[in-house]
Write a structure and sequence with these properties.
Blueprint lengths: L2 E8 L2 E15 L4 E7 L3 E6 L2 E5 L3 H15 L5 E6 L4 H6 L7 E6 L2 H10 L1 H4 L7 E5 L2 H7 L4 E7 L13 H10 E10 L7 H12 L4 E8 L7 E8 L19 H6 L5 H8 L2
Parallel strand pairs: 6-7, 6-9, 7-8, 9-10
Antiparallel strand pairs: 1-2, 2-3, 3-4, 4-5, 10-12, 11-12
Helix pairs in contact: 5-6
């Protein structure tokens, strides 16, 4: 008998994968968590029925949420990742020799533990001595640490449950204060096909806080529609201008950095209306 996993990404569309094995499935204090082994994408972390990361395509998302800002900043030393309990963003941050500290703030400890056990290629960097892992509320951490970070990455789930506050203007204002005077941040901001209203609202909120805001795109096959957006807010550095420092990647490079900001017409129009 074949077992298939389906994520209903909208009421009318979804993604379906043939499952080899369910490695774990339980409810945490915050959400339903599962790690399944699929034929097409390998091991897959699922939260509340939504795909968060897979072994086969995780590198696209994690490289693109991190390297654009890390390349735009000339000397990133102290970095914060809010969410991202799978450890993939931290792994990419640590590829820069300038980084002295990388702090991960994840509200759900079960996500960290499951990633370490079942997704070691993604979570392995969490044991690096430069990394501080805090099981805490990212919103509160940002509020209590002003002027501390060079770069901040909001590697959140979809805006449901504990992640709702990570899309609020008050949170972006807190990030502004938590950054140093030349800091910048990036947040994942969902699909321009399926989440137009969210993108418009978030872009407008960040634009009211940061003087320089730009949206860019990447292709992540297992995310809704396969086309994903990231929004960067900066105090001074243009996130579109990468430094071209060498870094080991599979998706990101200097040309991709530039091309990610070349937006299709329908996405440009989306931002013009925000």
């Amino acid at each position: 008998m074949e077992l298939w996993y389906t994520e209903r990404q909208t009421p009318y569309a979804g993604i379906t994968c043939l499952v080899r094995e369910t490695l774990c499935h339980f409810r945490t204090p915050y959400q339903e968590l599962a790690v399944i082994d699929t034929v097409q994408y390998g091991r897959m972390l699922v939260l509340d029925g939504m795909v968060q990361t897979t072994e086969q395509d995780e590198f696209v998302y994690h490289e693109m949420i991190v390297h654009v800002a890390m390349q735009a900043h000339p000397d990133p030393r102290h970095v914060l990742v809010v969410g991202g309990g799978d450890g993939g963003a931290i792994r990419e941050v640590l590829k820069y020799p300038s980084v002295e500290s990388a702090t991960l703030v994840e509200i759900d400890e079960a996500v960290i533990n499951a990633a370490k056990e079942y997704l070691p290629a993604i979570a392995g960097a969490l044991d690096d001595p430069r990394v501080r892992v805090l099981v805490a509320d990212g919103i509160q951490h940002v509020r209590e640490n002003q002027g501390k970070y060079d770069c901040i990455f909001v590697d959140s789930t979809e805006p449901v449950g504990p992640a709702v506050g990570l899309f609020a203007e008050e949170f972006y204002a807190g990030i502004y204060r938590a950054l140093k005077k030349d800091g910048l941040f990036v947040a994942q901001t969902e699909s321009p096909f399926f989440n137009r209203d969210l993108i418009k609202k978030v872009f407008a909120r960040i634009s009211r806080v940061f003087p320089l805001v730009k949206l860019y795109l990447a292709s992540v096959p297992t995310y809704p529609s396969g086309l994903w957006s990231f929004t960067a807010g900066s105090k001074c550095y243009d996130p579109e201008t990468g430094a071209g420092r060498p870094v080991m990647t599979r998706y990101y490079n200097a040309e991709v950095h530039q091309g990610a900001f070349r937006l299709p017409v329908f996405v440009r129009e989306l931002l013009e209306d925000s």
